[in-house]
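Hi all, long-time lurker, first post. I run a small reading group and we've been trying to get comfortable going from sequence to structure in the token notation. Rather than ask abstract questions, I figured I'd post a concrete chain and ask someone more experienced to write out its structure so we can walk through it together at our next meeting. Sequence below, copied exactly:
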Amino acid sequence: MKEIAVAGTGYVGLVTGVCLAHHGHSVTCVDVDAAKVARLCAGQSPIYEPGLEELLKEGIGAGRLRFTTDGAAAYQNAEVIFIGVGTPEREDGSANLDYVFAVVREIAAAVRRDCVVVVKSTVPIGTNDEVERYLKEHLAHPVRLDVASNPEFLSQGTAVRDTLHASRIVIGTEAERPRRVLEEVYADFDAPRLFTSRRSAEMIKYASNDFLALKISYINEIANLCEMVGASVDDVATGMGYDQRIGRHFLRAGIGYGGSCFPKDTKALDSFATIKGVTLKTVAATIAVNEGQKRRLLQKAHAHYKSLAGVTVAVLGLAFKPGTDDLREAPSLLCVPQLLAEGAALRAWDPVAAQNFARRLAGLPGTAGAAGSITYCDTIQNALAGAGLCLIFTEWPEVRALDPKTFEEQMALPLVLDGRNCFSPEEVQKSGARLRYESIGRPPVDTREG
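-- Answer (accepted) --
Happy to help. Here is the structure in token form:
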């Protein structure tokens, strides 16, 4: 078992540290946020992620998992140091590496034994080379440091499973020693290994995320065309998915992707390629399509209401996907402020993201003086009560489990615009509910007459 330090306790760093401790390693996680560290030491996860808090408490109880703000103490005797801090996008779309190199500087000053520094953060191609160069030039003590690229492939909502039972573990190295060390680190993990160069490992991460984002934008464009010609995107995606060259995953139409990875990584690769003098037309199109798709429900709403001033609007779901409280690039953050600006009276429900959303919304410019209002509801039924419009932004299980008759029973005007295709048109038709139901890429259902 290894003595491991992990820099950062966000999604990547925290999940990595907890899962390494679960497999018997001695892990110290480092973060600059003292309040966050105190909460983690008490066994409380600062993020909502199924299974994470249980493994967090397990690691602390077994004495294999610790948290600290003292990076120097954590790094000085570690055999392996994982860098899992954020790389947020800059205004031009490029990746901000300030947090990565802040950690690198601290490692260079602190480390006192031979170790392997592993860059797990998503970074532009060539960053590992820069990290190695800096470390070799600024080491305060005569030790050997090797640098390896080990990108993460976790999804929010399934991050623990994606780490413990990953689709693959990609390890990019330029020497035998770091490869051997990381083979030992991952010896008990249930996943195939791919060993490659550092630059290939960095590219694999970007190429994978951008391809998945491209599939989503592609099927969303097909869905929009399906609505125009009376076809069903569900049938189209099913037919496409039988072809093994295409596959069935990431062909679910909706109102666009969000989260911490796809938006940031598509923009970062596009920016990086531009700097290198290469135009990635498919990636640029993916970004443009997704931005437009986020507004799809607003477009549908305005087909029914010339003005939303004074309209009570039920908003079901605020997080960018179910299973997380993450709001990064969520369509709700784009659409809700516009609804408020138009004067709508919003009644919003989300099982875990409502508090985060309220904080984020309060910080958006212009929201405080908006003509509309927003109320956060504890139940879906309360959100629907008296509404003249329902917008579904997140496919939470609680939403998918609804009887369509609930919309008729609770709403003043049962008009449902479903951005995540939570119900099949056939299901709505057969339910006996009297409502108008519109989704993405499928014919509308209107049972209000007859």
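A couple of things your group might point at:
The chain has 19 helices and 15 strands.
Residues 198-229 form the longest helix (32 residues).
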